[in-house]
Amino acid sequence: MARAASTVEAGDSAERILQILSESARLFATNGYDGTSMRDIAEACGISKSLLYHHFTDKDEIFARIALGSTRELYQFVFDRLPEGATPTERLRAFMVATGEYFQRYRWAWLASTSAFWSDPEQRRQKERMMWRDRYEGLVRTLIQQAIDAGEFRPLDVPLAGRLVLSALNWMHRWYKPDKGMPAPQIADAYFDMIFRGLRAE
Amino acid sequence: MARAASTVEAGDSAERILQILSESARLFATNGYDGTSMRDIAEACGISKSLLYHHFTDKDEIFARIALGSTRELYQFVFDRLPEGATPTERLRAFMVATGEYFQRYRWAWLASTSAFWSDPEQRRQKERMMWRDRYEGLVRTLIQQAIDAGEFRPLDVPLAGRLVLSALNWMHRWYKPDKGMPAPQIADAYFDMIFRGLRAE
DNA sequence: GCAAGTATTGACCGATCGGTCAGCGGCCGC
DNA sequence: GCGGCCGCTGACCGATCGGTCAATACTTGC
Asked: In strand D, which positions have an atom below 7 A from any protein CB?
């Protein structure tokens, strides 16, 4: 029975599932949700289209797994990298740099998630995903508020300042080329410097 | 005669084309390029699908007209609103506010243009569009460089600073709701204030 | 060796897509 | 009055889509 061999079976199955998710993320990131067919995914994996439906119920589930996974992991990845004893300012810098690092490392999943903004699957299920997204975005607002309370930041429209920070990070995918220019964490750090100190001469 | 969604009874071809472009922009903005079918556009206009092909060669041409038009107009709109005698700093502020104003006024076309980033038509033709986009982006870099030369800005990585400014403006479409909150030009102005002066306490 | 379960496949389905085409009807110049 | 033109239509096409299903290969417990 499958009891004793469950590890092996789960291992085989899990590897295949990981492969499907990985290839799907790459394709979604490159061609968008609607621009990627189940046939494309199957071909990229070197398997039949039917096998996709053996491991996933439908196309939406593949995408949802990628989007939810990357959104949850982004939050945890960034949260784990906030230095505990540091000032809010330094923690905000760490927030931005960690986001850049995550973006660089899991770029396909990031791109896939953000690419489907205009397609249906975004609004449909995705409730749990939005919860993690809200936590992530809440984090930056909390840090900004703490920086204000600590006197490190001047009084600000906190939601708008948060949006400025997130805009810089979230827009990176539209122009960032991994082969050339600065690595993403360094870009994030430079962004922090400009936003924190401002552009004007001192 | 059949009643249309919009009131266009006269057989004027130019008006009909404008109607098609307007409805298409709204649909592309809402559902994306792939998520909008020619049948959808025809239905929204209250006309037959065949008539679309009477006025346009294919779906791509409709989109290209919208995207090129809005990109060119954005540049001209913003360029015309840069105060001539002002300092580079004030001109950069005007650049951002004008972009917010354009975004607010021609939101559907803006959204349609940016939504198709992940679909094919973006890369296909669109050469002329990219020229205007490059001019627009070059403008912000020029203003930043002039501000540095005038001693108003500290020495900066100019392309990156330009990207920061453009990120704030370009990401607005992902969260901006026209019904509530600040109007877009005011948001752009607040962004400028934060980027120029920085977040830190003085 | 056998039964059971799982991974995997190709053939197939209805729906929808972008796009085509022959033709209809009203208006305008002659 | 009439012939050509233009805005306009519905019927239709091949391709592709997401998804289904019955059947096959392989593994594994007994």
From this structure: 6-11, 16-22, 27-30
Structure tokens, A198: 């401002």
Nearest CB among B34, B117, B200 relative to A152 is that of B200
B120: pLDDT confidence band, cut at 50, 70 and 90? confident
Candidates B44, B40, B169, B57; CA nearest to B121 is B57
Q: Is A130 on the interface with B (CB under 8 A)?
A: no
- Whether B76 contacts chain A with CB within 8 A: no
**What residue has its CA nearest to the C1' of C25?**
B1
Please give the C-alpha separations between residue A76 and each of A7, A103, A133, B98, in angstroms, as whole numbers: 27, 13, 11, 38
Q: Is the CB of B38 under 7 A from strand C?
A: yes
Gap from A124 CA to C6 C1', Å: 32
Decide: A189 and A96 in contact? Cβ < 8 Å. yes
> Cβ of B190: how many Cβ atoms within 10 Å?
20
Q: Is the pLDDT score of A3 beyond 50?
A: no
Residues contacting B131, CB < 8 A, separation 6+: none
**Better-scored residue on pLDDT, B52 or B11:** B52
A11-57 pLDDT, tens digit each = 578 889 999 999 999 999 999 999 999 999 999 999 999 999 999 99
Report CA torsion sign: A193, A89, A140, B108: negative
A49 touches strand C (CB under 7 A): yes
Domains delineated in chain A? 60-197 (1.10.357.10)
